[in-house]
């Protein structure tokens, strides 16, 4: 019986999944931090603020992380995730305005 070494692509795939999870966690954290301060914000303004913070590498006052590339699709995906989890809600009559 001969054991084959673990395939490299499996390790690379796990690393990619882990990186995507970390990115999603950072984006969700940014979204909630911004909305905690603002209380309510138009979804477009929120997306631009999150993308700007990612480019600058700022998580909030006094906290920094490595900057990374994020797109509006990434931010909107996290917004939907947070809406489904109940952390955010849409204003009644103004669904484009989000509240924490």
UniProtKB/TrEMBL annotation:
Q: Which residues form the Cullin neddylation domain?
A: 19-96
Q: Gene3D superfamilies from the entry?
A: Winged helix-like DNA-binding domain superfamily/Winged helix DNA-binding domain (1.10.10.10)
InterPro entries linked to this entry: Cullin (IPR045093), Cullin_neddylation_domain (IPR019559), WH-like_DNA-bd_sf (IPR036388), WH_DNA-bd_sf (IPR036390)
Its recorded name reads CUL9 protein
* Organism in which the protein naturally occurs: Nyctibius grandis (Great potoo)
